[in-house]
Specification:
Length: 135
């Protein structure tokens, strides 16, 4: 079998980031080359489906009811925290939900850049919930 004549560009094959080396880039994140992005994204929803909990961190898990989806759980929690949240917090939640549903249900392999954006948004949502955990 002959080797390819050039570099093969396919969004789902490369897990290491080879972008610009400037320090200002927000996408300079080192991830393991064998990390399967789809498994990470699926694990969030599966946590709710099978354990009936959403893990925010080691010391905070949100219990869920029935067949709740991630969207329903987060909208409910943000509804309880609405007095403390800023417009930016709400915007971040909706950006996350749109991004989550795209990468989770589109069936398209998740590219490195999409995964980094997804994880950044997820981190901000979890930080908001942690910050207002008493609500």
């Amino acid at each position: 079998m002959a080797a390819p004549r050039g570099r093969i560009m396919h969004r789902g094959l490369f897990h290491s980031y080879e972008g610009p080396s400037s320090e200002s880039s927000s996408l300079q994140v080192k991830l393991p080359n064998n990390l399967v992005y789809e498994n990470v994204v699926h694990s969030i929803g599966e946590d709710i489906k099978y354990r009936k909990m959403l893990s925010i961190n080691d010391s905070l898990q949100l219990k869920t009811e029935g067949k709740a989806t991630l969207r329903e759980v987060l909208l409910h929690k943000y509804g309880l925290m609405k007095q403390e949240l800023t417009d930016k917090d709400i915007s971040t939640l909706y950006d996350f939900l749109i991004h989550y549903e795209k990468v989770r249900f589109s069936g398209i392999p998740i590219a490195y850049d999409e995964f980094v954006i997804f994880m950044g948004l997820w981190s901000r949502v979890k930080n908001d919930i942690w910050k207002y955990k008493k609500v």
